[in-house]
Amino acid sequence: MVSNRLETGHSKRKLKKRLLRNNEYYDMQSMFDELYALSKKDNKFRNLMEIIRSEENIKLAFRNIKSNKGSKTPGTDKENILKLGNSDIDEFVIKIQQQLDNYFPKPVRRVLIPKPNGDKRPLGIPTITDRIVQQCIKQVLEPICEAKFYDHSYGFRPNRSTKHAIVRAMSLVNLSKFYYVVDVDIKGFFDNVNHAKLLKQLWSLGIQDKNLICVISKILKSEIEGIGKSEKGTPQGGILSPLLSNVVLNELDWWISSQWETMPTKHNYEKISRGRLDRSHKYRALRNSSELKEMFIVRYADDFKIFCKDFNSASKTLIAVKEWLKNRLGLEINEDKSKVTNLKKNYTEFLGIKFKAKKKKAVKTDYVVQSHITDKAKQKITTSYRRGIVRIKNQPNVDTVDLLNAKILGYHNYYDIATMVNKDFAEIHAKTFRMVDKCLKNVAKENTKSQEIPKTYKKFYGRYNFKTYYIMGKPLYPIAGIKHKSHKALNKEICAYTKKGRELIHKNLNEANMATMLYLMKHPISNRSTEYNDNRISLFIGQNGKCAITQEPLLINNMEVHHITPRNLGGTDEYKNLMYITTDVHILIHAKGKDVINKLIQRIGKLNITAWKKINKLREIVGNEPIAH
């Protein structure tokens, strides 16, 4: 039982198992849920290595690493996921277990990534086996840490995004009227994390397995190829680094929170209203004390802002945070980049967006957020767009158009949160349209009434009236085809480690997932027709990102295109002959052996009569007998 493994002292209890697609994963899911629940109760975890080195956890780590786009990047030993994937799974599990029993990481490969300002950012790439070891540890530590992390830190956490952080920051201005913001820039944060302090912070979170702490210490001190052992920092590129960086700054989050939001009071003013924690009465009581300063922190990784009500409070907060970081975490700040901003007068930048508080036209005493793309981001988009156009001019084919379209759609999807985003992209269009026209005049055709417009283009750009260029029958997405879109704040009940939280996650995945669609656009199937690659994107949108049979959300590592009439029977790549289904359903349609069929039925789980009729009809088309159910 999980409770025994964790040595928590709690009585044994039977964990419910669900009939789910991948038994190994969901056996681990029940354990992750248990870790999260126990961490919420401030339990101490002293035997985590047993869970980390378990067969199920190692197999799950392999699957997660395999689906990561960086899995094919070799480390210092020149090996990648492809070589490991060819090895026997049982031998692989034993190899990782033995490595964990007496762990010594191999040297980390160092790569320098160019930054927009001309500098270079060092990236550390561990060997593929060390990455799997780190993934094994991350999977077990994450639920424990998630239970202890502050609500308004958003970076490198499951089901949280930059947009959640931006929405929170804007709501503090729009709704709570915090017009003074403290910007603190930590000098080389990832390179200057104190290892001893970090290990103590892990211990204080309840991670008190001495063997595990020893392994993490060795990971932190991994030798960097050509440089030597690291005495401080969490190298960017390591799988554990993002989680560990959040552990470091979680203490800052809660310290800021304790100054106002979670300040203890003699009387408990907090109450639950409409299922949410209401602190409004508490804040009203706290305001009676002149010594307290209202402040809230919004953090995404090492990029954070502290919102205050007045300039005096903000100035004192900046000084206090500077001293706290130095004395508590041993971190220095960039004096020239750390400042107090009056949002009524100046913009502040956060995650590629700049915003300020502007007077409303109707009510001159009220202010509302006005936001733009930052100047740096706008220049980066313009440069990337120009390069993409030149690439199409020199190589006028479907691949170069798909690549640029994916970038344009990605930019639009990220920056549509800015209230003035249409104006920003209109400026980019104005700067580039002559160049675009000149570059594409000999390789592109304008749209005509007879030209069939793809469904993807219709969905995202059908309402605009821009000049459309067709290259090899493929339309180029308009750079100015964007409007501001309102985004919801994070629902705090969404959580990967509770039953209710996962139900909310699946509910959010009911519509086609933008990230998955961008992945499909950027990764066309090289040995398949243009029609096939175009239709697989339209198909994903047409099915709202769900399996045509089970209605499950389609995921990158669990989705396949099925030809209704097989190609060997004359089936084509046209839209009406294709459907997206999950991998297990696809195998089931083509499966013949009874043992294989029974295993697949168990993995897929319960299906309704309609789903079974569809599966059996598809089986008959490919020449297989229907399945009795």
Structural description of this entry:
- It is a single chain.
- The chain is an alpha+beta fold and 629 residues long.
- The protein is built from 23 helices and 18 strands.
- The strands form 7 sheets. Strands 8-9-3-10 form a 4-stranded antiparallel sheet, sandwiched between helices. A 3-stranded antiparallel sheet has the order 11-12-13. A 3-stranded antiparallel sheet has the order 14-15-16, with helices on one face.
- The chain is globular, with a radius of gyration of 27 Å.
Largest sheet: 4 strands, antiparallel
The number of helical elements comes to 23
What integer value in Å does the Rg equal? 27 Å
- Spatial sequence of strands, sheet with the most strands: 8-9-3-10
Content of β-strand: 5-15%
Fraction in helix: 40-55%
The gross shape turns out to be globular
Contiguous uncertain segments of 5+ residues: 1-26
Q: What's the end-to-end separation, in Å?
A: 34 Å
Tally of strands: 18
pLDDT averaged residue by residue: 85
Structural class: alpha+beta
Question: How are the SSEs placed, and which strands pair?
Answer:
Elements: H1 2-6, H2 23-40, H3 49-52, H4 55-66, H5 81-85, H6 89-101, E1 109-114, E2 120-125, H7 128-146, H8 162-174, E3 180-184, H9 195-204, H10 210-220, E4 223-224, E5 228-229, H11 241-258, E6 271-273, E7 276-278, H12 280-286, E8 295-300, E9 303-308, H13 311-329, E10 339-342, E11 348-350, E12 353-359, E13 367-373, H14 375-394, H15 398-415, H16 421-440, E14 445-446, H17 455-461, E15 469-471, E16 474-475, H18 499-508, H19 514-522, H20 530-542, E17 560-563, E18 578-581, H21 583-590, H22 594-604, H23 609-621
Antiparallel strand pairs: 1-2, 3-9, 3-10, 4-5, 6-7, 8-9, 11-12, 12-13, 14-15, 15-16, 17-18
